[in-house]
Amino acid sequence: MKRYAKGRTVLNTFCYTGGFSVYALAGGAREVCSVDSSERAVELATENMRLNFGEGAPHTEIAADAVEYLRDIGDRYDLIILDPPAFAKHHKVLGNAMQGYKRL
Fold first, then answer.
1. Please, what is the Cα angle at 99 between 94 and 102, to 5 degrees?
2. CA angle at residue 13 from 7 to 18, to 5 degrees?
3. Which end of the chain has a smaller Cβ tally under 10 Å, C or N?
4. Alpha helices in the chain (DSSP H)
5. H or E segment at 32?
């Protein structure tokens, strides 16, 4: 992550607890934005950043649908991390999963 994030503005979609966000900032990112549809996940990411960097870290968090958010960002970010959760845990829902991946 350090090699990619240094000096860049980073967007971490599907951030969950913000692991990639922490590594991006630790790697020298200028700024990191964490997005997840779960408000609880965003709270965890925020807490994780606070624990690792204290108050005032260059980090913003947004509780929103990551795919919808991606539609409106333009060229605001230099690096985008896309690590969605598994859309299919069983072969019976493979069709729905494929639709989810196409949406991305």
1. 125
2. 75
3. C
4. 2-5, 19-26, 39-53, 66-71, 94-103
5. strand 31-36
The helices-and-strands tally (H runs, E runs) of the chain is: 5, 4
The DSSP code for 85 is P
Q: In this predicted model, what pLDDT tens digit does every residue of 37-87 receive, in sequence order? A: 999 999 999 999 999 999 999 999 999 999 899 998 989 999 999 987 654
Question: Domains in the chain, start-ordered, CATH in brackets?
Answer: 2-103 (3.40.50.150)
Query: How far, in Å, are 13, 25, 54, 63, 95 from residue 39 at the CA level?
Result: 13, 21, 21, 5, 28
Number of other residues whose CB lies within 10 A of the CB of residue 14: 19
pLDDT digits (tens, 9 = 90+) for 19-35: 999 999 999 999 999 99
Closest CA to 42 of 59, 26, 23: 59
Residue with tokens 């991305």: 104
pTM over 0.85: no
